[in-house]
Amino acid sequence: MAFAGLKKQINKANQYVTEKMGGAEGTKLDLDFMEMERKTDVTVELVEELQAKTKEYLQPNPTARAKMAAVKGISKLSGQAKSNTYPQPEGILADCMLTYGKKLGEDSIFASALVEMGDSLKQMADVKYSLDDNIKQNFLEPLHQLQTKDLKEVMHHRKKLQGRRLDFDCKKRRQAKDDEIRNAEEKFAESLQLAQVGMYNLLENDVEQVSQLVTFAEGMLDYHSQCSEILKVLVETLNEKREEAAARPKSEFVPKTLADLNIEMLGSQDGMNGGPHFLNPNRLNNSHHHIFPIAVSDAFSRKNTDANKAHTAMLHSIENDVITLIQRVDENWFEGSLNGRNGYFPQSYVQVTVPLPSN
Known about the structure:
Blueprint: H1 3-21, H2 31-58, H3 62-78, H4 89-104, H5 109-173, H6 178-203, H7 206-247, E1 278-281, H8 298-303, E2 313-314, E3 323-328, E4 333-338, E5 341-346, E6 350-352
Parallel strand pairs: 2-5
Antiparallel strand pairs: 1-3, 1-6, 3-4, 4-5
Helix pairs in contact: 1-5, 2-5, 2-6, 4-5, 5-6, 5-7
Organism: Anopheles melas
Protein name: BAR domain-containing protein
GO biological process, one term: synaptic vesicle uncoating
């Protein structure tokens, strides 16, 4: 730095301290200029905050944004450009629905409805990516240019004006030579002119800035319109699925017992000794439940009195079950006990191994 430049910096510092600490009066600019400065400061804050909030609107997940920024930084350091796309929430939800809809299977109406909604959310995610590109290109990029070019230039002229004003006031206060004061005054006037013109052009550029807002609003309208059409079709499809599900007849379901699964149960083992009377079912259909009706003959019906209604039920058994005989109902039916339950069963379905005692 030349000696003249160093001397100027010392003068500015001296004047600044004198005004702040010593109460010296500096050159005051008019209220119009001060209002322009205020609005310019607000614009600086606005542009910075508006860019940040718009990015948050387009990419609301802070963790995903931080991850993308880290990947981008690492890519720059390594010299390898990597494309890192922000995961849209519609796309994440769509992947979940599509995955489990396919896992449930095509025979499930609920599964097909999940797939339909997943496909619609995928379309909405693609529309959101188009909105991102549109806003970044037509709104965020102009704001960035405004911040890094126009605002930067205006703030440079204002800073230079402040320095030249301090130098001018310092030389006046110290009663420097006339040519020095005149030279400082000319530079002060030049910076004042540049700062005023720069701020005026910035603040009177409403047409361009409002046009950018129009572009933003149009992009949002287009996004929501497309999403609305997608959702209308989806709602119609889901209503059809609901009607289809309501019209589908429900199939009867009988839960399987341990006996159906051929699981050996306590009290049904072969070869039990000391029991009263046992018979060994030799069923016609292997490993299937047989339900014996409780009113197949007159003799059986007469046995179903109030005294034994609790025991007149259908007796379930599978092959090789051991049934304790209680009595013969008639020539075709027995009453027996199996696993603590009493019931009736046809004689033709079993093989009697230990007959009832004759009366």
